[in-house]
Design a protein that fits this description.
By secondary structure, the chain is of the alpha/beta class. Helix content is 34%, strand content 16%. The protein contains 6 helices and 8 strands. The longest helix has 16 residues.
Protein backbone atom coordinates (compact mmCIF):
# COMPACT_ATOMS: atom_id res chain seq x y z
CA UNK A 1 0.00 0.00 0.00
CA UNK A 2 1.60 3.28 -1.04
CA UNK A 3 2.07 6.09 1.48
CA UNK A 4 2.69 9.51 -0.10
CA UNK A 5 4.59 12.12 1.90
CA UNK A 6 4.91 15.33 -0.10
CA UNK A 7 7.35 18.06 0.97
CA UNK A 8 7.42 16.48 4.40
CA UNK A 9 9.72 17.48 7.23
CA UNK A 10 12.68 15.07 7.59
CA UNK A 11 11.70 14.18 11.16
CA UNK A 12 8.27 13.02 9.97
CA UNK A 13 9.85 10.73 7.38
CA UNK A 14 12.23 9.40 10.05
CA UNK A 15 9.25 8.65 12.34
CA UNK A 16 7.39 6.80 9.58
CA UNK A 17 10.50 4.65 9.05
CA UNK A 18 11.11 4.09 12.79
CA UNK A 19 7.47 3.09 13.30
CA UNK A 20 7.89 0.35 10.69
CA UNK A 21 5.11 1.74 8.50
CA UNK A 22 7.05 1.24 5.25
CA UNK A 23 9.30 -1.48 3.86
CA UNK A 24 10.54 0.38 0.77
CA UNK A 25 10.86 4.03 -0.23
CA UNK A 26 10.72 6.01 -3.48
CA UNK A 27 12.11 9.52 -3.25
CA UNK A 28 10.96 11.93 -5.93
CA UNK A 29 13.39 14.82 -5.80
CA UNK A 30 14.81 17.13 -8.42
CA UNK A 31 16.91 19.58 -6.44
CA UNK A 32 20.59 19.20 -5.63
CA UNK A 33 20.30 18.97 -1.83
CA UNK A 34 20.84 15.31 -0.98
CA UNK A 35 20.44 15.34 2.84
CA UNK A 36 17.01 13.64 2.70
CA UNK A 37 18.31 11.02 0.30
CA UNK A 38 21.32 10.26 2.53
CA UNK A 39 19.14 10.00 5.65
CA UNK A 40 16.66 7.71 3.93
CA UNK A 41 19.39 5.44 2.54
CA UNK A 42 20.95 5.27 6.01
CA UNK A 43 17.72 3.66 7.26
CA UNK A 44 18.68 0.48 5.41
CA UNK A 45 15.34 0.18 3.63
CA UNK A 46 15.28 -0.50 -0.11
CA UNK A 47 15.19 2.87 -1.81
CA UNK A 48 14.72 4.22 -5.35
CA UNK A 49 15.46 7.87 -6.11
CA UNK A 50 13.62 9.44 -9.04
CA UNK A 51 14.52 12.57 -11.05
CA UNK A 52 18.17 12.75 -10.02
CA UNK A 53 21.29 10.69 -9.40
CA UNK A 54 22.43 9.19 -6.12
CA UNK A 55 24.84 10.98 -3.81
CA UNK A 56 28.43 9.89 -4.36
CA UNK A 57 29.49 6.81 -2.44
CA UNK A 58 26.10 5.07 -2.40
CA UNK A 59 26.44 1.86 -4.35
CA UNK A 60 24.21 -0.91 -3.07
CA UNK A 61 21.79 -3.48 -4.44
CA UNK A 62 19.20 -1.94 -2.07
CA UNK A 63 19.49 1.55 -3.58
CA UNK A 64 18.81 2.65 -7.14
CA UNK A 65 17.87 5.70 -9.15
CA UNK A 66 15.95 6.51 -12.32
CA UNK A 67 16.25 9.77 -14.24
CA UNK A 68 16.09 11.09 -17.78
CA UNK A 69 19.32 11.25 -19.78
CA UNK A 70 19.49 15.04 -20.05
CA UNK A 71 23.09 14.98 -21.30
CA UNK A 72 22.11 12.76 -24.20
CA UNK A 73 19.21 15.07 -25.00
CA UNK A 74 21.54 18.08 -25.15
CA UNK A 75 24.02 16.18 -27.33
CA UNK A 76 21.13 15.50 -29.72
CA UNK A 77 20.08 19.16 -29.64
CA UNK A 78 23.59 20.38 -30.50
CA UNK A 79 24.04 17.70 -33.18
CA UNK A 80 20.76 18.77 -34.78
CA UNK A 81 21.76 22.43 -34.77
CA UNK A 82 25.11 21.58 -36.36
CA UNK A 83 23.36 19.50 -39.03
CA UNK A 84 21.27 22.61 -39.82
CA UNK A 85 24.46 24.63 -40.32
CA UNK A 86 24.39 26.48 -36.98
CA UNK A 87 27.73 27.61 -35.56
CA UNK A 88 26.63 30.03 -32.78
CA UNK A 89 24.30 28.22 -30.39
CA UNK A 90 22.48 29.66 -27.38
CA UNK A 91 21.17 27.61 -24.48
CA UNK A 92 18.48 29.92 -23.02
CA UNK A 93 17.81 27.79 -19.96
CA UNK A 94 18.63 27.56 -16.28
CA UNK A 95 22.16 26.37 -15.61
CA UNK A 96 21.93 25.14 -12.00
CA UNK A 97 19.55 24.73 -9.11
CA UNK A 98 17.89 21.51 -10.22
CA UNK A 99 19.52 18.24 -11.17
CA UNK A 100 18.01 18.33 -14.69
CA UNK A 101 19.21 21.91 -15.25
CA UNK A 102 22.74 21.03 -14.14
CA UNK A 103 22.81 17.94 -16.36
CA UNK A 104 21.50 19.90 -19.37
CA UNK A 105 24.07 22.65 -18.81
CA UNK A 106 26.96 20.21 -18.51
CA UNK A 107 25.67 18.15 -21.45
CA UNK A 108 25.39 21.30 -23.59
CA UNK A 109 28.97 22.31 -22.79
CA UNK A 110 30.28 18.81 -23.53
CA UNK A 111 28.41 18.68 -26.86
CA UNK A 112 29.71 22.12 -27.88
CA UNK A 113 33.25 20.98 -27.02
CA UNK A 114 32.80 17.96 -29.33
CA UNK A 115 32.06 20.33 -32.25
CA UNK A 116 34.56 23.07 -31.35
CA UNK A 117 36.93 21.94 -34.12
CA UNK A 118 34.20 22.81 -36.63
CA UNK A 119 33.95 26.39 -35.39
CA UNK A 120 30.90 25.81 -33.19
CA UNK A 121 30.60 28.03 -30.11
CA UNK A 122 27.97 27.91 -27.40
CA UNK A 123 26.62 30.31 -24.79
CA UNK A 124 24.26 29.75 -21.88
CA UNK A 125 22.06 32.58 -20.63
CA UNK A 126 19.97 31.63 -17.60
CA UNK A 127 16.52 33.24 -17.64
CA UNK A 128 15.72 35.84 -15.02
CA UNK A 129 12.25 34.56 -14.20
CA UNK A 130 10.90 37.87 -12.93
CA UNK A 131 12.02 39.63 -16.13
CA UNK A 132 12.18 36.98 -18.85
CA UNK A 133 10.05 38.98 -21.34
CA UNK A 134 12.46 41.98 -21.39
CA UNK A 135 15.36 39.53 -21.33
CA UNK A 136 14.00 37.73 -24.41
CA UNK A 137 13.64 41.12 -26.14
CA UNK A 138 17.26 41.90 -25.27
CA UNK A 139 18.42 38.76 -27.06
CA UNK A 140 17.35 40.29 -30.38
CA UNK A 141 18.21 43.97 -29.80
CA UNK A 142 21.17 43.82 -32.17
CA UNK A 143 19.67 41.30 -34.56
CA UNK A 144 20.05 37.53 -34.27
CA UNK A 145 23.37 36.92 -32.50
CA UNK A 146 22.83 33.15 -32.53
CA UNK A 147 21.84 30.97 -35.45
CA UNK A 148 20.58 28.22 -33.12
CA UNK A 149 18.63 28.71 -29.88
CA UNK A 150 17.57 26.00 -27.44
CA UNK A 151 14.80 26.88 -24.98
CA UNK A 152 13.50 24.68 -22.19
CA UNK A 153 9.99 25.75 -21.25
CA UNK A 154 6.84 27.23 -22.67
CA UNK A 155 6.93 30.72 -21.10
CA UNK A 156 10.48 31.28 -22.34
CA UNK A 157 9.68 29.94 -25.81
CA UNK A 158 6.63 32.16 -26.11
CA UNK A 159 8.56 35.25 -24.96
CA UNK A 160 11.39 34.51 -27.39
CA UNK A 161 9.04 33.99 -30.33
CA UNK A 162 7.18 37.23 -29.57
CA UNK A 163 10.47 39.15 -29.33
CA UNK A 164 11.66 37.71 -32.66
CA UNK A 165 8.35 38.39 -34.39
CA UNK A 166 8.36 42.03 -33.20
CA UNK A 167 11.63 42.48 -35.10
CA UNK A 168 10.51 40.62 -38.21
CA UNK A 169 12.70 37.60 -37.44
CA UNK A 170 11.44 34.08 -38.09
CA UNK A 171 12.68 30.73 -36.81
CA UNK A 172 13.71 28.53 -39.69
CA UNK A 173 14.77 31.56 -41.73
CA UNK A 174 16.77 33.89 -39.46
CA UNK A 175 17.65 31.37 -36.75
CA UNK A 176 16.78 27.82 -35.78
CA UNK A 177 14.85 27.07 -32.61
CA UNK A 178 14.65 23.82 -30.68
CA UNK A 179 12.37 23.64 -27.66
CA UNK A 180 11.34 20.83 -25.35
CA UNK A 181 7.84 19.44 -25.53
CA UNK A 182 6.84 21.80 -22.73
CA UNK A 183 5.72 24.19 -25.49
CA UNK A 184 1.97 23.54 -25.74
CA UNK A 185 0.52 22.36 -29.01
CA UNK A 186 -2.27 24.92 -28.63
CA UNK A 187 0.14 27.85 -29.11
CA UNK A 188 0.76 28.86 -32.68
CA UNK A 189 3.30 31.05 -34.39
CA UNK A 190 2.93 32.70 -37.78
CA UNK A 191 6.43 31.71 -38.87
CA UNK A 192 8.07 28.34 -39.22
CA UNK A 193 7.23 25.78 -36.58
CA UNK A 194 9.90 25.42 -33.90
CA UNK A 195 11.63 22.05 -33.76
CA UNK A 196 10.42 19.86 -30.92
CA UNK A 197 12.68 17.37 -29.27
CA UNK A 198 11.37 14.96 -26.69
CA UNK A 199 13.45 13.94 -23.73
CA UNK A 200 14.58 10.33 -23.74
Amino acid sequence: DPLLLSRTRPERIAKVIQDGRVDGIMIIQSDLDDRHIRQTIASGLPCVVLNRDLPKGFDSDRVGCVYSDHRRMMAGVVDEFVSLGCRRILNFSSATGLFASKECFEGFNAAIACHAGRGVIGSTIPPVWAHYEPQANGLFEQGPQWDGIFVNGSPLTGALLRAAEARGLKPGRDFHLITTDAFPETETYAGAEPHRRREA
